[in-house]
């Protein structure tokens, strides 16, 4: 979208550009407040949110977009919220990550989690491509299924340059299956004669979001809850290297497409997006205990709210008619990927008594 210009044909100054963003950002903020309210009601009624605020935000944004086409006045702020605010949210998440958590969980379990994530990334991506989905949408589905659902999709999307339709498609169908997993996974305890340890590992490997892991494991007891949360957090930590690797791959591919004939030395700051560098810096500071504990909760909360704002913006930019053209294939890709992840995880937990 071209930038608005003044009557003299010049681009507006920084202050004018900032003012132009306000209507769209405020609109996204309204959707965010409503979505957070829905999640708060869920937490009060069910103790855990089965449908997270970021899912509510994107669905509500899509509903608003279906009923009303935003004019030029709103679009710049919506676009800013969908991209720049999401990048800031991803960067802030680094402050909540401690590399020490990886070592504390045990090398055997760490290796099992890493192998599971890598295998499922390859399988989910290949399956999505076989079903005729675009490469970027396939990457989003693979990361969401293999790592941490909506959070992984939101983190990877700006790195690979995914558009709003792809993000909305992958998040919407992943969210539905995530809720079904929470409701159905406990049924496997008596069916497969799983111990508390085995079920905790299974839940941590297969359920998408940390709150959903809690919802799925609390009925099974404290051991399952603690182990499931630990496995899930280690799985989430895989997001860092995956995102960095994708950013390097995208940078290399863009360089090749640009027709660079000779090899040149490229700064890591050009290869890796600024917000990924910020993520790694904050994670390192957190690991060396240079980030005070009192700061972690507000920073994490800010990142979560900014992510919801971004999802609201993505929903407001989605054309539902585009989703209908890929709905069946996306549903098949996500469903089959989740079933394969479940099968692989069930086989894995039998090694842990």
From TrEMBL:
Q: Which InterPro entries match?
A: UPF0324_pro
Q: Which Pfam families match?
A: Cons_hypoth698
Membrane spanning residue stretches? 18-38, 50-68, 80-101, 107-127, 139-161, 167-189, 201-222, 234-251, 271-288, 294-318, 330-352
| Subcellular location, record wording | Cell membrane
- Provide one Gene Ontology cellular component: plasma membrane
Q: How does it sit in the membrane?
A: Multi-pass membrane protein
Major localization listed first in the record, in broad terms: membrane
**Is this entry keyworded Transmembrane helix?**
yes
Keyword annotations for this protein, in alphabetical order, are: Cell membrane, Membrane, Transmembrane, Transmembrane helix
- Family that this chain belongs to: Belongs to the UPF0324 family.
Q: What protein name is recorded for this chain?
A: Integral membrane protein (TIGR00698 family)
UniProt organism field: Bradyrhizobium macuxiense
Q: What is the organism lineage in this UniProt record?
A: Bacteria, Pseudomonadati, Pseudomonadota, Alphaproteobacteria, Hyphomicrobiales
